[in-house]
Amino acid sequence: MRTSTALRFAHIVAVLFATSGVGAETTYRWIDPGSGHTVISDLPPPPGARQVIHYTTNTGVGEPQIPYAVRQATEKFPVVLYTSLGCVTCKEARALLDRRGVPFSERAPNSEEELAELARQLGGEALLPSIRVGRQSVRGFSPTAWIELLDAAGYPSSAPYRVRPSEAAE
Length: 170
Known about the structure:
Elements: H1 2-19, E1 23-31, E2 38-41, E3 50-59, H2 68-76, E4 79-82, H3 88-100, E5 104-107, H4 112-122, E6 130-133, E7 136-138, H5 143-153, H6 165-169
């Protein structure tokens, strides 16, 4: 009898550990009763709000909980980092984005055609690293210009949802 109780207890503990990392995020969308504007928020709507819709997304174990403001900035102003292999300045550019917690995609042009296309998109010579935030871009690595561009897009000034790579390496 003691063995079956211990087995049940072990099973319950195992189930709790397996499900503890799974969570859900809810985003609400509604029409504000006072202004008539559409509001999207991670907070529940006030009483009297019309056309309330709530979206729930499940996140699994190990997935970062990206804050609402970062998700919004990413949807409106996606970030693309243009780099090349072995580029020391490119590592600094990546580190700047990582410190700020900015999700980004990285592209490394490999051919003359790709470099020419990048130069056309950036409006001049293709200096690497370069960044595109939404429709705006900065040619070459200029931390001040990059920070201003990221601030204008609404990205956070520091990574709020995870350990910075530099802290993990220490």
